[in-house]
Amino acid sequence: QVHLVESGGGSVQAGGSLRLACVASGSISRINTMDWYRQTPGKERELVNSVKGRFSISRDNAENTVYLQMNSLKPEDTAVYYCHADIISPTLRQYTYWGQGTQVTVSS
């Protein structure tokens, strides 16, 4: 079993910054993909990688961790942010995992 645990969400004023972290733990042979999605009520979950210029994603492969640095936050960035990972198990099968989600609220 694999667990993804997110941290770093919260409330911030427009123009502020937040850094989210997601740590994968458990039966992991290799992590193929580790990234971030976000979702607001009534909308599809969307890949965060597409937010250019203000957000950046980095990985610490040794720690099975992915970070999402969010700068110049806008009210429209308010959403639940989910960590996503495609992980190869010790039996060499790939599984997709999601974190529990962390709320980011940006006030104007």
Number of strands: 10
Described by strand count, sense and barrel closure, the largest sheet is: 6 strands, mixed
List low-confidence stretches.
none
What is the helical fraction, as a range of percent?
Answer: under 10%
Quote the average pLDDT: 94
**Helices and strands: which structural class?**
mainly beta
Number of DSSP helical runs: 0
Q: Give the CA-based shape.
A: elongated
Order of helices and strands: EEEEEEEEEE
Rg measurement, Å: 14 Å
How far apart lie the N and C ends?
A: 41 Å
Determine the strand fraction and express it as a percent band.
Answer: over 45%
Q: Can you lay out the helices and strands and say which pair or pack?
A:
Blueprint: E1 2-7, E2 10-13, E3 18-26, E4 30-39, E5 46-47, E6 55-60, E7 65-70, E8 79-88, E9 94-98, E10 102-107
Parallel strand pairs: 2-10
Antiparallel strand pairs: 1-3, 3-7, 4-5, 4-8, 6-7, 8-9, 8-10
